[in-house]
Amino acid sequence: MTIASSPRLDRKRRRAWSAVVLASGLIVVLAGCARKVEPFETTGAVPDDYRLNHPIAIEEMVETLDVPVGLYTAKLNFGARGNVAGFAQKFVDSGSSVIAVVAPSGSPNQENATGIAVEIEDVLRLSGVAEGAIDYRVYQAGSGERNAPVRVAFSRVAAHTAPCEPWRDQVTVNGQNRNYVNFGCATQQNLAAITANPLDLLYPRGLTPADAARRADVLNKYRKGAAFSADLSKEEGGNVAQGVGN
Q1: With 0-12 CB in 10 A as exposed, 13-18 as middle and 19+ as buried, what is 85?
Q2: Is the model's pLDDT at 9 over the cut of 60?
Q3: Residue 13: other Cβ atoms inside 10 A
Q4: Does the model's pTM come out above 0.70?
């Protein structure tokens, strides 16, 4: 015996089947989108400028020179005099106003150190340091410090960088295509060390006046049609082109 279904029941079945098909298709689409996304890096966003990684700082620092004094040292030897003279020149060039000579007190070599400090002051004066710029001081040394030094010190504005780090990364193995950690560190340290005036790294200097005598000589030769540049052909062993006026 066959039971015929009504049209209303057939419509309900078709709607339910369509909903099942639609839900299945949506699940398949979402499953296709739910794949694993690998992390990525933007190379341009990674700080790789050595001037930023190893910046040069401009700040006040204390320069010191320790002159060792033995228990039986009678006077300042020739080598130590040269060291003090060089330190004095460094002080003069720095533009600082005070340089301190600090002798030990309470150490076994106290008496000899006091005499060495006086000799150091003499060397400073002979090297161009003004009398009023020398400040004599003492520091407390321990009774066991048989070779307590005489310290010469002054403060100045200096340029410096942080110490270069150990080589903790591999230069040849670098998947990020970046510089190694110490890249540019030695260059920055050398630049800071050889800079005579650290403020030159911050501000430009004013222009110096032109050499009026040299300028007049060049213009005079130019008007006459004579060579007005230096002839270095003999010194350099070759021919050097000279500027000639028309």
Answers
A1: middle
A2: no
A3: 10
A4: no
